[in-house]
Write a structure and sequence with these properties.
The longest helix has 32 residues, at 48-79. The two termini are 16 Å apart. The radius of gyration is 18 Å and the shape is rod-shaped. By secondary structure, the chain is mainly α. Helix 1 packs antiparallel against helix 2. The chain is built from two helices and no strands.
Amino acid sequence: MKLSRRTSWFLTAFGVWSMIIWTTFVKNLWKDSGGQAFVDGDHGQPTAFFWIHLLLAATSFALGVAVGAVGVRGLRAARREPVAD
């Protein structure tokens, strides 16, 4: 399959955006002061809320890396060809 430069840039940008967003989400989850992520604020006792959201963030981060990698590969392949967009 051949990706256009526009599509490759979009996928690359989406991958970068996803990595930034989900890293920030995990940092905020760890600093939770509302009592949802940890029992009585004790980081040694994470709740089900913490584990579910950590799994969600890790999965989304991994998918973002995969999508970004596809975009980068598309850009690298497009660089080898003359501009035809």
